[in-house]
Amino acid sequence: MITITPKRKFDVPIQAACINVDIFTGKTLEDIKKLAITEGKENLTLNDAFNITEDKTVETPNITLIGDFSKVKRIGQGMKTGEIIINGNAGMHTGEKLAGGKIVVNGNSDGWTGSEMKKGLIEIHGDAGDYTASPFRGTDTGGMKGGIIIVDGNVGSNVGCYLRGGTIKIKGSAGRFLGHHMSDGTIYIEKNCASRAGTFMTGGKIIINGTIELVMPTFTIDSIKPKVKVDATLNAPGPFYVFLGDIAEHGTGKIFALKTTNPALSTYEKYL
Amino acid sequence: MTEIIKSVVCPICGCLCDDLEVTVENNEIVKMKNGCAVCEAKMVHGYKSDERILEPHIRKNGKLVPVSMDEAIYKAAQILTDAKYPLLFGWTSSASETQHVGVELAEELGCALDNCCSVCHGPSVMAIQEIGIPTATLGQIRHRADLLVYWACDPWSAHPRHVERYTAFTDGRFEKSEFKEYVQKLKGKASKKKVEAAIRRTQVRYQPPPRPQTAIVEAPPPTLAKTGRKMIVFDVKKTMTAEVADYFVQVEPNSDYEIFGAMRCLVNDQEIDVDKVGGVPVEYLKEIVDAMVNADFGAIFFGLGLTQSVGRFRNIEIAIAMTRDLNRKTKFVISPMRGHFNVTGANTVFAWQTGYPFALDFSQGYPQYNPGEFTANDLLRRGDNDATLVISADPGAHFPKSSIQNMMKHPLITINPDWNAISRLGDVVFPAQWCGIEQAGTAYRMDSVAISLKKVVEAPKGVPSDEEIIKRILNKVRVIKAQKTRKDVTETKNVENKKI
Ligand code: SF4
């Protein structure tokens, strides 16, 4: 196991895509210390900014980061195997393009966490920022394709945009534009959801166990379902209002909103 | 000596009116024809105010003291090279030639580069990247458009000649001006008021009608079905533009997205399950959509009320999606109402140089783009950068407090013609010429048409153009970087000699 701690408080952002189990495997501690990172425009080695130690007796997790990493971007980018644990906050683009393995953040994570992810697991035991699991701007093919993201806290806006597969479970509340343009996959929210969920969606499902601020007029009521399947391990008990949409996009995505927590939606019952 | 210069371009708003007639007497503008009040305020009075910066200043012991240009250039270059991650911000009131050198400077420094569009129409640019845009030049719209929709913008106050030059009140080749009808409407209103006043005088105790508590949208007027030019305004309050429009729809704040969604369904002949969206009854929306579909050529203009309210670039995305849907039935275009006269130029120049229009980062040696990560306010709010250069912009007056507080923790260089809020806060303050008055150059109109700005008067002595300042800083930065890497003194001298 490699343990990395910051040597000082960082002011300007650090880009450290090299903190990645695939890159570390097969390298000696000395080689790892020489890996290139940037701090602003300055080119540094990993050793210039971080203290790095190795503990050969422990196998997993492969990398442990201890301290405040909120200014360190791109941790575990494109990782295929292995496990990274961050005991502190993680910066932007953590686990971007993840293709396997596991990343655990024992703190908050910033924007674009798990963006364009294909496989693997990201656990965030704090809040996640805006654009979690959403692709780079202007890419409509780059949405998350698979894997699981679990957030214990709240998430920001534009989470799960262009989602094409996989599961996002949020134990807190979600901001606006949740699952914007999603075409497949599942988003499950235990608490409340801001308005404009599922806009432009053509497939997949969003399950809201709390209150939804407003259902977009581009969604139409379909039915009331007693329960809904989140994934192989979880069935959410209902009853749920089921909305179909986004009809302006001729979509068949579904929003499930819990009946007991959404009395305002009872006006839709007359269309059933 | 009096000289009349014709076809001068107004360097203020994105309309870039190019028909001004300026009278110059003894190197001073004394009179102007054709321009609007905003234009006159700057071109005839504002540019020669007492607040003009005439020489470079450096902050020493907390006070700004005048210094020589060379000293200021050296100091600025040193600040920028010493910093790990500077931010270059502004650019929208400079000529495109300056913006071009700015990109070169940013690349040399490996820093963040952003322009004012990140606080105005940046979201429009992002939406265009998401979904594309069906648009037209203002000339097309002037000659052909018969339905004009202004959404969340007030050109009557912010782009005063937009309606008169490009849309409803101009005589196009195929569509006639609506100005006469507007005057008639005004007269009608005035006589109605007179009648009301007369009735009031006869009544002993006049009770004014109760004011409506919530916004009440009036039903669409029958004129919406007439042929010829029509104007519809959507806004949260009754603006000056709304007063002259055929129909004004007062929407609830932050509900434009829902209204666009509902209108998209109606354009696609779909049913919706609610009767009111954003305070507007769906039956009224139906009539508006009918008018849109029946138009021969419609144009939607949108402003900051969409780009900077809740939803931001998603608002524009859905507006463009609605325009796309409308194009299945008729011809419709959509266009942003860009603010500063060359903000479109900043986007165009940055995109042509780097591939990206704003929110750029060169720290990896190649351009990276990500609004939200590299936009000026996000960088400043997080305290990511450690030096700032502001050119032809005034974030001091317009940025949130937290951003400015973080900006002030690090050195600040400013390049502006006058003592605006940010110049007063600067550590190195450069004077600059007024672009479009004292300096010629290229600017891009809001529909991305390039227009050449004219020079009408000479700048005060010793005041260089911002292009020259940026070029000199760039050269100095190169010299300092060379000194850092090459210890050989003679080599450095050679580079210095090569200075342009
Ligand atoms: S509308 Fe704009 S460009 Fe035209 S004269 Fe007025 S301020 Fe200048």
Walk me through the structure.
The complex is a heterodimer of chains A (272) and B (500). Helices cover 5% and strands 35% of the residues of chain A. Chain A has 272 residues and is mainly beta. Chain A has one domain (9-20, 56-271): Pectate Lyase C-like (3 Solenoid), CATH 2.160.20. In chain A, the strands form two sheets. A 13-stranded mixed β-sheet of chain A has the order 5-1-6-8-9-10-11-12-13-14-17-16-15. Chain B has 500 residues and is of the alpha/beta class. Chain B folds into two domains: 52-116 and 341-497, 3-Layer(aba) Sandwich (Rossmann fold); 122-201 and 212-336, Dimethylsulfoxide Reductase, domain 2 (3-Layer(aba) Sandwich), CATH 3.40.228. Chain B is globular. Chains A and B meet through loops of A and helix 4, helix 10 and helix 13 of B. Bound molecules: iron/sulfur cluster.
Determine the fraction of residues in helical runs of chain B and give it as a percent range.
25-40%
The CATH class of the largest domain in chain B is Alpha Beta
Which class of chain A in CATH terms? Mainly Beta
Total domain count of chain B: 2
- Provide a count of the helices of chain A: 3
- Residue runs with pLDDT of under 50 for 5 or more positions of chain A: none
Would you identify the CATH architecture of chain A? 3 Solenoid
Strand order of the largest sheet of chain A: 5-1-6-8-9-10-11-12-13-14-17-16-15
**Shape category of chain B:** globular
Strand count, sense and barrel status of the largest sheet of chain B are: 9 strands, mixed
Bound molecules: iron/sulfur cluster
Number of helices of chain B: 20
What is the H/E string of chain A? EEHHEEHEEEEEEEEEEEEE
The residue fraction in helices of chain A comes out at: under 10%
* SSE class of chain B: alpha/beta
Largest sheet of chain A: 13 strands, mixed
CATH topology of the largest domain in chain B: Rossmann fold
Tell me how many strands of chain A there are.
17
Largest interface: A-B, 38 and 41 residues
Mean pLDDT of chain B, to the nearest integer, reads: 88
Radius of gyration of chain B: 26 Å
